[in-house]
Design goal:
Elements lengths: L1 E9 L3 H11 L6 E4 L16 E2 L9 H11 L6 H20 L25 E2 L5 H14 L4 E4 L3 E6 L19 E5 L6 E11 L20 H8 L4 E2 L4 E8 L14 H4 L3 E3 L19 H15 L4 E4 L5 H7 L1 H9 L9 E10 L2 E3 L11 E3 L4 E2 L11 H20 L20 H21 L3 E2 L1 H24 L4 H22 L8 E2 L11
Parallel strand pairs: 1-2, 1-8, 2-5, 8-15, 14-16, 17-18
Antiparallel strand pairs: 3-4, 6-7, 7-8, 9-14, 10-13, 11-12, 12-13
Helix pairs in contact: 1-4, 1-10, 2-3, 3-10, 5-13, 8-9, 11-12, 11-13, 12-13
Length: 529
């Protein structure tokens, strides 16, 4: 079946929905949001801490936020991208409020601002400790009430369509690659339909699920990055995988692990060993409020030194009622496994959390493939550089969704649907044995990435990951060619592609910088072998 939408959006988090609302109000055509599961199961909904924006001009300003972002990114960040996001932040917040998102306010009626690691001022807007959930809720209501937006849940994007599908040879040196839409798997018919578009936006989120332990939902398999990479789009900074220093250590839940927000350290939480001894003073003068890469490596080292499976975050010295008020969901979650955080320390460990790299885009959020835009975690705008500053991701998604909407609305009249695109060839079948192999291979990808391409790396570990992933790639591509596409095998392909990209770009960076720390090119004074 062939379907036509002027604006095709793959992914339904804050990035995809912000863009959809912007282009839908233009009246320039039909808009579709394609989600691999349901609209509420996006990475956005898992974000606890908040969204960063300069709002208190009495003490804060754009220059301070820009400087904090550049420092956290180890000065790899693109200054133009940083300036665009920081200066566009207040307008982005106004858009979210207009769409129905609620942020906590103080008794004066001003935004109740938090401070997080790496920020020199209080500039984090939040909604208790479930800010992402509140943003997702507000935007979902807005898109569902917009008659110009079609929402297709539980539909899976298999590939984006380019000249390659018209029989032309396309490689990384091919000039003028264009995107004509995507092949989408319909869960009801189990057939791959052809979705033609004039403009396509990738908003598929992150890559956390390629690791054995992650704070991301299981759907974060890097689909958008992998599809764009296979279509020969440029992908950048994939070596910079952010590991959140503090997820709840709970062996019963590894995928996704429960996030203990950085705002809890901003609130006054102190990292300690299980015996109560503090340790961050050995690693950074900012102690528990140091940027995430430093904190994650410090925890990783302490766990290895002492043979621990976790360290602890202590808020028992804070007022119990205030703790319960600020972090009601974390309090309830910990209580459900027998931990009262007002009386007991919280067991925490690092976990794969955020991809700072992705599909390289310009200031208009357009990729190296014409008519293909990327926004949110699947994109590499240059904002994050070597390490994302806490709470910069949600505001980046809103600001770049606005930039993508403005640019695509300016140029869409020059684009037509490409009716020469062939329908998908869906010959083939899959046996139960093959399904078992796919499940096993997914586990193996997670183990390879966590063991060899984790917080601390080495040339030997990266080479071993490369070799293992190459073997999995060959086996999976051979299988994919002879079976009907299913969500599972497509996710496995994408996970392998993403793992390969992370590993390759980690091998290419011959230094320790930002989130990429290798013992063969150490930058820091302390040794973490």
């Amino acid at each position: 079946m062939i379907r036509k939408f002027d604006f095709l959006i793959i992914g339904g988090g804050v990035a995809g929905m912000s863009y959809a609302l912007k282009v839908a109000q233009s009246g320039k055509g039909k808009v579709a949001i394609v989600c691999k599961t349901t609209l509420d199961e996006a990475n956005t909904a898992k974000a606890q801490g908040g969204i960063a924006s300069v709002t208190n001009l009495e003490v804060d300003n754009f220059e301070k936020h820009i400087q904090d972002t550049m420092i956290a990114g180890d000065y790899i960040s693109d200054p133009q991208a940083v300036e665009q996001v920081v200066k566009g932040g207040p307008a982005g917040i106004r858009d979210l409020v207009k769409w129905g998102v609620n942020f906590d306010k103080n008794e004066k009626g001003d935004f109740d601002l938090h401070r997080e690691g790496g920020h020199c001022e209080f500039r984090i807007l939040h909604h208790a400790d479930d800010t992402g959930f509140e943003i997702q809720r507000g935007l979902m209501e807005a898109v569902r009430h917009n008659p110009n937006i079609t929402i297709l849940e539980n539909h899976y994007a298999v590939e984006i369509i380019t000249q390659h599908h018209l029989g032309q040879e396309v490689n990384r040196r091919t000039a003028g690659i264009e995107c004509y839409g995507a092949y989408i798997l319909d869960p009801d018919t189990q057939k791959v339909d052809t979705f033609l578009s004039r403009v396509t936006l990738m908003a598929t989120g992150g890559t956390g699920a390629v690791y054995a332990t992650t704070s991301n939902p299981n759907i974060a398999t890097g689909d958008g990055i992998a599809m764009a990479y296979r279509a020969k789009a440029e992908c950048k900074d994939m070596e910079f995988v952010q590991f959140h220093p503090t997820v709840l250590y709970n062996p019963a839940e590894t995928h996704p692990a429960y996030l203990i927000t950085e705002a809890m350290r901003g609130y006054g939480g102190i990292l300690k060993l299980p015996n109560g001894e503090e340790f961050m003073q050995k690693y950074d003068k900012r102690l528990s409020l140091a940027p995430r890469d430093i904190v994650a490596r410090a925890i990783d080292r302490e766990m290895k030194i002492h043979g621990l499976k976790h360290v602890c975050l202590d808020v028992t010295h804070k007022d119990p009622e205030q703790t319960k008020h600020h972090f009601p969901n974390i309090y309830a979650k910990c209580l459900s496994i027998g931990i009262d955080i007002t009386k007991q320390m919280i067991p925490v460990c690092p976990s794969a959390h955020y991809m700072c790299g992705g599909i390289k885009v310009d200031l208009n959020a357009e990729s190296s493939i014409k008519r293909l835009y990327a926004v949110g975690e699947c994109s590499c705008t240059g904002l994050h550089g070597g390490n994302r500053l806490a709470s910069n991701s949600l505001i980046e998604a809103v600001v770049y969704a606005d930039a993508a909407a403005k640019h695509s609305l300016q140029v869409i009249d020059g684009y037509k649907f490409n009716d020469a695109v062939p329908e998908w060839n869906d010959e083939g079948t899959m046996s139960n044995e093959e399904k078992v192999l796919i499940a096993q291979d997914m586990l193996e990808v997670g183990q390879i990435m966590s063991n060899y391409v984790g917080i601390v790396r080495s040339d030997l570990r990266l080479k071993r990951a490369w070799t293992r992933l190459d073997l999995l790639y060959e086996e999976t591509e051979e299988l994919f060619k002879r079976v009907k596409p299913t969500k599972d095998i497509c996710e496995l392909r994408n996970m392998i592609n993403v793992g390969y990209l992370i590993t390759r770009q980690a091998i290419e960076r011959k230094e320790s910088r930002g989130l990429h720390y290798t013992v063969d090119y150490p930058k820091h004074a302390y040794d973490q072998k």
